[in-house]
Amino acid sequence: MEFGFVLFLLSSALFEHSSGFTTWVVGSCSGLFTEQEGVFASPNYPNRYPHYAHCTWTIRSLENKFIALRFSYVNIESNPGCSFDAVRVYDGPSTSSPLLGRLCGSSSRSFGSSGNNLTIVFSSDGSVDGRGFVANWYFTDYCYYTTTAPAPACGGRLHGSGSISSPYYPNYYHDNAYCEWQLSAPAGQTIFLSFQDLDLERCCSCDYVKVYDGSYVGSRLLGTVCYNDTNHLDFQSSSSYMTVLFRSDYSGVGRGFKASFSSSLSSNTGRVDCSSEKMKITIRRSYLDSMGFNWHDLYLDDHRCTPSADYYYVTFNFPIHSCSTRREAENGRIIYTNNVRAAQSTSGEITRQDTSFLMRVRCVMERDSSVGTLYEALENNNATISGTGRFNTSMAFYPSSSFSYPITESPYKVNLNQQLYVQVQLTRAEPTLHLFMDTCVASPNNDFSIRTYDLIRNGCAKDSTVYIYRNGNRYFAQFRFRAFKFLRTHSQVFLRCDVIICVDNDYNSRCRQGCRYRKKRSLSSDHRTEVVTLGPITLKDQEEAVAKIEDKN
Fold it and tell me: Disulfide engineering: 73 pairs with which of 21, 134, 297, 391, CB 3.0-4.6 Å?
């Protein structure tokens, strides 16, 4: 049986006909439907549904038949994971029954029950609305519609290098997902895992990724990744095995995640340390000896860049913008690349024998850290060396809006309501990198653990005296605010800003989006922040008053 689009021109009413005829329910916000077939719609349809609606309908077959349900028209606020305005369909008599799926935006969909009950819940918040939905149902002896699209295969055993991602990535993953990957590396090597994109439900106990240091989920836990716990997005095993577990519950969803993995030499064989200014590559001499190469034969893409050595290690230590180092962007991240090369000493100027040695070096900069990897290619024997580093940023007060020179006195003594000018910047000027202030807060304590006050939040000015001069379109950002003091505490104030580093040609980066009043859950290429602090600021009048009292005494 097929149901077309139903145009409702009637006021809210319930029309019941004799058995075998369709029941039309228009504009109701709850009900129990036991008729053979029928149609119902959201409140006020075809007008826009109200804010803060919460409606529940139950469809029950009294003859123990299956229920086929089809949403023929949907016009509901489009929102990530259908977390705000949405229709939810449950396979049973209540909302404690299994969730078959949710609807928002404009996507139509069909559902089928596994028993003789379906429960449908429609809810809306206080912001955006729409025209709502129209749904048709009928009873059948057969389940013509599957309850939902079959869950895709996920998890498995993977070896060497590659990538893993959540089901349907980069689209929304499904509810009640359970995916387990066992990653392995060649004997004597380890696994290095790096998350490139992350967008999970805003509930760390609901949807999460766990990384285990071993071949099963009972191994030592290396860490958990969820929507607000993104301090560690790079993991390295202590053996040749790593297990990754992804789970989602029955409520909100997100776009999921993507992570790359590779086999990695142990850190005592080789490593890379990176910052926004320098790159340091360290390789054990005994490893080079085992490959038949002398450290004197090594050089970078710029053949003039050669290493130094001691008894145990060979070291390249050079400015990251020198030695033919290249910079590129991948998924919103900044990557510096170079190559360690070597050739065995031979007579003459040319050779036709493949005796070269190559390690590809990658430093992946992610706001507050970087990941360095070395890919070695020699007789098809590939390996990876991994390391970490940081972007270098600083923050300072300036005496005026010209931002010509910073104030160096500490603490900075100011008057109440005095204009304070702040600049946050990359330590090294990079015209093709942009810095974005996502959040700036003040606190009377330098650990920011008890009391904080928002100056900037999600790139938006939260205090009425804040004026943002630049944000997200240069390698520095600037703003001003008026000095204040916290009640019932001392006169010192500290500042802390969370900043994001983006490449200038990444038009989807957080830097390009500016002020965002509703914080999105996607972390994608912006999933870490550099934290810079400044202070203290001390009020002049209170210090001077204390000094006068001491003089009198």
Answer: 134
> Which strand ranges, in their side-by-side order, compose the sheet holding 234-236?
162-165, 256-264, 190-199, 234-236
Provide the pairing of β-strand 178-184 with 156-159.
Answer: parallel
pTM above 0.70, yes or no: no
Under DSSP, the state recorded for 172 is P
CB 317 within 8 A of CB 278: yes
CA 66 to CA 314: how far, in whole Å? 72
User: Which residue, among 149, 500, 388, 173, has the nearest Cα to 165 in the 3D structure?
Assistant: 173
What are the distances in angstroms from CA 288 to CA 29, 285, 316, 358?
Answer: 74, 5, 14, 12
Instruction: Tell me which long-range contacts 374-377 makes (C-beta under 8 A, separation of at least 24).
Output: 374/265, 374/270, 374/272, 374/281, 374/340, 375/262, 376/265
Determine contact, residues 455/471, Cβ cutoff 8 Å.
no
Each residue's pLDDT tens digit, 383-437: 455 545 567 788 888 999 999 888 877 778 888 888 999 999 887 777 888 889 9
- The helix (H) or strand (E) run that includes residue 199 is strand 190-199
Stated as kind and residue range, the H or E segment containing 261 is strand 256-264
- Segment 430-480, tens digit of pLDDT: 788 888 998 898 888 877 777 888 999 989 999 999 999 999 888 899 999
What spatial distance separates the first Cα and last Cα of the chain, rounded to whole Å?
96
Smallest CA-to-CA distance from 486 within 528, 536, 531 is with 536
With tokens 């689009």, the residue in question is 5
**CB-based burial label for 526 (10 Å; 0-12, 13-18, 19+):** buried
CB 155 within 8 A of CB 66: no
What backbone phi and psi angles, to 5 degrees, belong to 540?
-65, -45
Cβ atoms of 451 and 443 within 8 Å: the answer is yes
Angstrom CA distances, 74 to 59, 70, 104, 435, stand at 19, 11, 7, 40
